[in-house]
Amino acid sequence: MDRITDRLAELISIPSVTGDEVAIRDQLAEMLEHIGLTVDVFDADLDSLSIDPEFPGMEVERTVLPVVCGTLNPDAPGTHPMLSGHIDVVPAGDPASWTSDPFTPRIDGGRMYGRGACDMKGGVVAILETLDALIELGHRGPVSVAFVPSEEDGGSGTLAAIRRGTDADLVVIPEPTDLEIVTAHAGAITFRLVIPGRAAHAAIRTEGVSALDGLQTIRAALAEDERHRNTAVPDPRMAELGLPYPTIVGTITGGVWASSVIDAVEVTGRYGVKLDQGVTDAAGDLERCLRAAWEADPFLSGFGMDFEVFGASFDSCEIADDHELAVGLARSVTTVTGRRAQPKGLPAGTDMRLFVNQAGIPAVLFGPGDLRVAHAADEHVDLRDVATCAAVLTDWVKTLDAY
After folding, report:
1. All domains in the chain, ordered by first residue
2. What is the pLDDT of residues 65-89, one digit of tens each?
3. Tell me, what DSSP letter sits at residue 367?
């Protein structure tokens, strides 16, 4: 447990906010070399990646995309698993909302607190611990690792690793899943919409039309669309989530003067991609919803609709619950913990879909941490769950060719 604690504290202390991952990439490269892997450290070619037909988009400007991959026993025969994790974290937000400094790791009650502890540096440490355990056990089979940037804004780091030639038969990504096995996840797209109004002096506000009124119309339409898309969801893994395909308006910008009726607001938001569709189909659903509400509104219908889907896009993804990857990993969960793991769904997009959809490699999510504290103030992970995750992954790798 001391090694887990020390490693996680070291990684949290490196503020690897999306777009600034070089320092943590280099530190992890040193760790992998020390463990004994053959290591490939590279900066992906952003120009060629950005014109790749499968490029997932970015929302953070960057000049470098730093990746480190490694392989244990690269020439050995047998089933070749990969353990992959992202090294970027979201911004900490208002420091005053945290009990302590977000990038100064703190332990309380067996939990380590700090930005990225849950999402997903706890999972990254579980990978390192798995590698150490396999070497200590004398494991002779091949095992690959990919530590990638830019997951939080699209997944270009994983696409870069795939294009580099990083390959495996099966992939486990220890994202925070409460040590449950996720075999299906939703996707998401980001959108922007400008809603017009008509300016007027506040003293004669009825002469104007507030863009906020139009925003209310749009929000009501999005809420009804969300309700419809989340009713009678056919896949039980997603249905049990309650709201597998959420829609939100995340930012609202508008107004220039306190005593003027707002003549325009710009909103951006997130729209869920259903399990049975891709991002293009989801964008079509969203545009039809918005356009129907727009054209039915007496004021908005007099204007063209200024709408776009931009930035990162996350396809949905799934593998079968009875796939050998899910079954074998569940067997290891039972061996290590004594409990039975059931396949689950996730209402968020992850790099899993790039391995499954673009590389054709079966992948699942399984890792320590609770998604409800990811991206939140006082983010944390239970150190015992990190250790359990590593023990399960070690057992899974060791038994891959035993059944």
Report:
1. 2-185+316-398 (3.40.630.10), 187-314 (3.30.70.360)
2. 999 999 999 999 999 999 999 999 9
3. -
